[in-house]
């Protein structure tokens, strides 16, 4: 009798598997195809953004029945029940696969129950001709209010491995991200002979993860202790088995969610595409047991093939690699070991490379064993030996990665040079330390908070979308190091809409300087709207200054690569170090340049790069939503900071260019979810 029941259960599981597989196949979009030259489609997607729940009723008996974990709307995540922000009840959100030159139409409907707004940024898409579709709240568009839909329409360009994510608050940390793959015709792929398959199922999306909505931790980080804001789990394609789930009817019976499995055939070569949608200082060291990886693209741009044992991928970065399935039939760990905020190998995101014919089981090898050997893009927060060039263990920095094209820029004329310092400031930022009640000088670690800044300026988003309503905002809202006296910003907060302007079609060289004071922290800087060339990345032995790096640069004493430098849109600036980038301002628009560690961005480590004048920009569609403040001193007919120029924000009684902007509040809905989770934990339900 028991055997008959077991057989019946297996048949039910098989039926569910067939249904789920059929649903997945039916969901495959017609634009996910083999690309052809001069053949383009209009590809429409419908996204619903809402608060949702991991291990919801859609999961049925997951993880005790692993088949149930693959049901539509089931988000198993790491095995811990929590509220999430999901697109179409999926984490990651639906994958977009199109061909270069296709027209993408994405209808984003905001169903967030707490009245929260949202936007979606298309990370890696340059938005040439459509800068108002870049998806940055209060820069390129109005935020999308609850109950409304915004239609994004733009060309899928350039080709490469990209992703989309929210650019509001910490929604990316709660699950609002997904892959955006833009392919080329096979005959236009320079590395097509290096691999046999480029499969949708071999896209790997990495992220860090909290056990509760991120705003709960962010609020504690801001108003209590900075060290509280650290991830607990690491997700690979939205999956982890970090937690055991207890059976409600018998808590002694436990199970873990399934990990992602990638199927390969022995002898074949596969293109794997990796993205890092992490929001903290969380680098992943990626490797596959017993296999080398050949890196063929970075941030969507082809590079000269480089075989490595492991590579690092930091928030905002993407890598394409080729895995040759040349080992014995079996199961092998795909490891993404967490570094820096993710625990220096204490946390590992895992997947399984399963050869056809291998048993349906996990590898028996050590999950956390550190793979040694050639390591591309290491974290420079660790000690680094710049002269190591051979042996079993040595690092390859990103400025050593070469573009696939043999380009020589030694004779290129540079139209503008800009030295950008970045650091943390201990000041009376009213976000952390209202000077009247608990000023910074009265607090001691761990309750001491530092303000991130570029050129000692903390970024404030304008009260009106700059790209779509430029005539509605006074120029006094904007600043840069030449218009604000930043010498006092170390003690007093200087906060404004930090913007640097360049003429169209200039060649700009920026030297990014991470001064490393008062704490050494690297930064992942991402530029919207353009690629830049990485000419050099280096790290000094101790904290530095803009003046020191500028002198070294002018004397030719920094790392400098002008022959076949790699093109990127995200670069890591090591603590006590620098990165030298060069780009052409050939895409008219106002582009956000910011640290992709989300907590740094939310606290003001950002600026705008303005390419050209507004008169040179593409026409703005007349029906785009408009928004802004009601009352206060916002618009051009308002009185601004003329009475107290070049003063820190707290010293000016009139509304000033330093302005003020509150981060999105911790919503009532999220608070209720947080309280419920605490109650569930106490009751032993989680």
Automatic annotation (TrEMBL):
Heme in keyword set:
no
Enumerate the spans annotated as Plastocyanin-like domain: 77-185, 202-358, 480-608
Keywords, in A-Z order: Copper, Metal-binding, Oxidoreductase, Signal
Q: Which CDD domains match?
A: CuRO_1_tcLCC2_insect_like, CuRO_2_tcLCC_insect_like, CuRO_3_tcLLC2_insect_like
User: Can you cite an annotated GO cellular component?
Assistant: plasma membrane
**Which biological process terms from the Gene Ontology are attached to this UniProt entry?**
iron ion transport
Q: Which domain of life is it from?
A: Eukaryota
Citing just one GO molecular function, the answer is: copper ion binding
Family matches, as InterPro entries: Cu-oxidase-like_N, Cu-oxidase_2nd, Cu-oxidase_C, Cu-oxidase_fam, Cupredoxin
Residues in the signal sequence:
1-26
What is the similarity comment for this entry? Belongs to the multicopper oxidase family.
Q: Which PANTHER family match?
A: FI03373P-RELATED, MULTI-COPPER OXIDASE
Protein's name according to its UniProt entry: Laccase-2 isoform X1
Q: In which organism is this protein found?
A: Lingula anatina
The taxonomy runs: Eukaryota, Metazoa, Spiralia, Lophotrochozoa, Brachiopoda
């Amino acid at each position: 009798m028991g055997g008959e029941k077991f057989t019946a259960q297996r048949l039910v599981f098989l039926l569910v598997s067939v249904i789920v597989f059929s649903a997945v196949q039916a969901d495959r979009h017609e634009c996910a195809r083999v690309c052809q030259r001069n053949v383009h489609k209009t590809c429409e997607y419908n996204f619903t953004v809402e608060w949702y729940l991991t291990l919801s009723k859609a999961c049925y008996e997951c993880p005790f029945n692993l088949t149930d974990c693959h049901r539509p709307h089931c988000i198993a995540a790491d095995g811990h029940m929590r509220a999430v922000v999901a697109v179409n009840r999926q984490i990651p959100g639906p994958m977009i696969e199109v061909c270069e030159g296709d027209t993408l139409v994405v209808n984003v409907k905001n169903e967030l129950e707490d009245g929260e707004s949202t936007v979606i940024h298309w990370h890696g898409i340059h938005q040439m001709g459509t800068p108002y579709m870049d998806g940055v709240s209060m820069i390129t568009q109005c935020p999308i209010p609850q109950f409304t839909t915004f239609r994004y329409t733009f060309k899928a360009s350039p080709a490469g491995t990209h992703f989309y994510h929210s650019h509001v608050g910490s929604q990316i940390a709660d699950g609002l991200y997904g892959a955006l793959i833009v392919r080329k015709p096979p005959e236009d792929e320079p590395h097509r002979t290096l691999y046999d398959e480029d499969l949708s199922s071999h896209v790997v999306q990495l992220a860090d993860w909290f056990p509760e909505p991120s705003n709960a931790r962010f609020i504690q980080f801001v108003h209590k202790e900075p060290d509280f804001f650290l991830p607990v789990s690491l997700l690979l394609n939205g999956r982890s088995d970090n937690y055991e789930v207890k059976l409600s009817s018998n808590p002694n019976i436990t199970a873990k969610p399934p990990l992602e499995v990638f199927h390969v055939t022995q002898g074949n070569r596969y293109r794997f595409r990796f993205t890092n949608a992490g929001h903290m200082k969380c680098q992943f060291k990626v490797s596959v047991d017993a296999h080398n990886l050949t890196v063929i693209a970075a941030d969507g741009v082809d590079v000269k093939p480089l075989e490595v044992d492991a590579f690092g991928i930091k928030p905002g970065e993407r890598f394409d690699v080729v895995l040759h399935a040349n080992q014995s039939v079996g199961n092998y760990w795909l490891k993404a070991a967490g570094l820096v905020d993710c625990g220096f190998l204490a946390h590992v995101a895992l997947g399984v490379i399963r050869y056809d014919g291998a048993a349906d089981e996990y590898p028996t090898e050590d999950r956390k064993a550190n793979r040694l050997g050639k390591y591309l893009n290491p974290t420079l927060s660790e000690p680094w030996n710049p002269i190591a060039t051979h042996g079993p263990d040595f690092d390859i920095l990103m400025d050593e990665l070469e573009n696939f094209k043999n380009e020589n820029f030694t004779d290129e004329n540079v139209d503008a040079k800009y030295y950008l310092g970045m650091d943390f400031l201990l000041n009376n930022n009213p976000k952390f330390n209202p000077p009247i009640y608990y000023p910074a000088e009265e607090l001691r670690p761990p309750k001491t908070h530092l303000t991130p800044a570029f050129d000692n300026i903390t970024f404030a988003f304008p009260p009106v979308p700059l790209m779509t309503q430029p005539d509605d905002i006074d120029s006094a809202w904007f600043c840069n190091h030449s218009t604000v006296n930043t010498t006092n910003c170390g003690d007093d907060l200087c906060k404004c809409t930090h913007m640097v302007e360049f003429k169209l079609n200039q060649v700009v060289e920026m030297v990014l300087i991470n001064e490393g004071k008062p704490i050494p922290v690297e930064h992942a800087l991402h530029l919207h709207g353009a690629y830049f060339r990485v000419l050099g990345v280096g790290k000094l032995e101790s904290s530095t200054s803009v003046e020191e790096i500028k002198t070294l640069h002018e004397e030719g004493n920094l790392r400098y690569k002008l022959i076949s430098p790699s093109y990127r849109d995200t670069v890591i600036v090591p603590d006590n170090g620098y990165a030298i980038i060069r780009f052409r301002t050939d895409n008219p628009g106002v582009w956000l340049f910011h640290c992709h560690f989300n907590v740094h961005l939310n606290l003001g480590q950002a600026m705008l790069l303005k390419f050209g004048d507004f008169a040179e920009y593409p026409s703005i569609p007349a029906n785009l939503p408009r928004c802004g403040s009601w009352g206060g001193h916002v618009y051009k007919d308002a009185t601004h900071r003329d009475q107290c120029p070049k003063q820190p924000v707290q010293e000016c009684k009139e509304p000033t260019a330093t302005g003020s902007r509150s981060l999105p509040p911790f919503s009532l809905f999220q608070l209720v979810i947080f309280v419920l989770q605490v109650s569930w934990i106490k009751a032993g339900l989680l």
